[in-house]
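[job 4471] stage=fold_predict status=RUNNING
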Amino acid sequence: MAVTYMDLVEVDLGKLEAAVSDWKNTVDKLKTAAENARKGMKAKSDKARWAGVNATVTREFVDKTTKEISDLHIEANSIYQVLDDAHTELVSLQKQVRAASAEAQKWGIRVDDYGDGTVHCVYPHDRSTGDDHTQEQVEARQELEGRINRILSHASEIDASVARALRKSHGSDPNNAGHSSYESLDEAQVERAAELAKLGIKMTDEQFTELNSILKWNAKDADFSTAFYTSLGGPEETLEFYGRMSLDGTQGNDKERLALTRQLQRSMGTALATATDAGNEPHLSARWGEEFRKLGNKSIELYPGAGNAPYGYQILGGLLRYGNYDARFINPIAEHVVQLHHKDPYFFMNNKPMTGGADLDWGFNPSGKNGAGYDPLTSVLEGLGHSPEAAKKFFTDEPTVYKEDGTVDKNASLGYDYFDELNKKDFVWPPDSLVHPGSDEAKHVRDMGPDALGHALEAAVTGSAWDADPPKLHRDETTQDIMARVIERYNVTVADGPHDNMKDSLARMGAAYIDDLNYSIKDFGGSGDELGRDRIFAHSSDGSTRTSFGEQAARNFMMLVAADEDGYKTLSSAQQVFAASGLASLEENRDAGISFANNAAKVNGILDESRAHQIREDFKDDETARNLEMEKQGEWRKTLMSGGVAAVAAGGTALLLGPAAGVVAATAVPVLVESGGETVNTVYGNHTLQYLEDHEYKNDPEALAAVQGLESVGERGAWTPASNYADAIGMTQAEKDRLNREIEGSYRDGKDAISDAEKVSS
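[job 4471] inference complete, writing structure tokens
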């Protein structure tokens, strides 16, 4: 029976705590009794020189009684351990659900308890507003509903696991103690998960749901995950189990079974990352990684006599797509996969089944995201995209050469590094799809690899999983060096540009380094150091030091990214947040603030002209269409500048960005803070948001509505924040007039730099 919302909110866990205490006392007393029985009557019975039938009966009675007391101690200890763990976890969940309840009240949201372990969050009917709600309110309601339902699901799993463990500990005979015993709730959950896993594809949907529930809520627990994978037998048995489950779950059109298999993929991947992390205790031995490499290009016979037996890496790839992996485990596998691909790009793809375009999701990637799962290169890059430390090392550490069997070749050198290899113009991306070769869908079969590469690079340069929610920046010299290579490889001066599927990643990387891009631009004629840019940009929210990519390199990168509509929106939004943070933090330093404002205007000019340039290129033969596109971009900028940043909240080391246009769901953006000693927090995030709302663009909506097109809106966007900054620091009219000319010049300098590049390119 599921735990309901009201159950968890109102239950008195103090009674469970008291029961735990009582059982602990019982355990201690039974332990003493068992020791006394063993050292006392049993020891005396064993030494006694009895003879005859009565002596035999007496000895048997003493032995049985001693054993029964010991069994009672074991059973009591098992019950105590399970209840103690359950109490700890339920107390945590109760605090979480009560906090969510309080948050719902703050928003005016009603939580409807369905009584089946789920809730629905709603705003009560309000005639005065016509039940209209802002995007922020809608997102708050959705987030709360999802959060509460996840908490209830976790509580229900704990409740079910405890009930099952208590039944097994007690057994069915009230006159006989000594049945299943557990040292923790984890141990009981592992036992049940192993029982279900042994059923394999014979699991009913109900049993599959139970297995998924246990795995989902324990996948990040090292004790559970390590024991679970050990229970499967070993690396080969793991591949056999997951391989059969994924093929069974993706075959045909059973949507419910497919959904269950997708959850299994996610949970098993996360659990594998936990279990193979050498920093966790306990963890699987290094032998697991070595064995996976040996099995990588060997056939795994999932079904005796079946053709096209998959290679180990094809199956393992499905698991590697989820979880934050230790570099010591995933990087040797990633290196081996890249090296195998370098030798024969079609080695793995030649082993995919020929289905004639039917049942396209049949394979080892039930998620359906970026491939069917027959290409381990895409899979391992997705794994690196969720493993930032591993991704950083993968693109910077000295490569290790592996033989075909996955063992290290100590006498060989590779001759290339992975960044250059994967980003080279003629790299052959495998067609990881079962589509018919002549179909329209076949045109996109090589799109998944570049997308996965973009995700891996995002993780490497930001220090956060590419799809982390919320993302947090963890930048250092190594991540900045990788970003410098990205900028060197992808900019308007390089003939072979990025694959379309990489552009969103490049834009998010640019947003994550918007401070370094601004810092790089402030170096006209090499004057950056002389003009004190280090002092102006010193205090970043993630504590990192600034690095210059070079003025031209930064401009060329922004020109490439901002030429794309979505890339322009991402970078423009990031620039708005970063500029607002800088102006807010420099209110007490007039000279630095003015210098910062001029540079920000120049960056705005670069971004605006980059997009305008591309629009002119796209519609050079249709002036009407070009003007319409310019106006469309202008309308978007007006929305952004009119308070379109839907949510700015401190993410520990970065701000989260969510413009009204919906392009950036959660992008990490560094901000400037007032002093190096201050840690960015929610208060500072709110300060920045307040600055955006009160001091940026909302003061003159009539004038804003009057302008049309990208260029005129861009000009106003460059001047308005500087104008309000001037008012905030008390500039005279004459000083403000001079500042206006400076901002105009800076903005036009940015635009002219792009125009000059446009002339050269044409």
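[job 4471] summary: Confidence is low (pLDDT under 50) at residues 643-665, 676-688, 695-708.
[job 4471] exit 0
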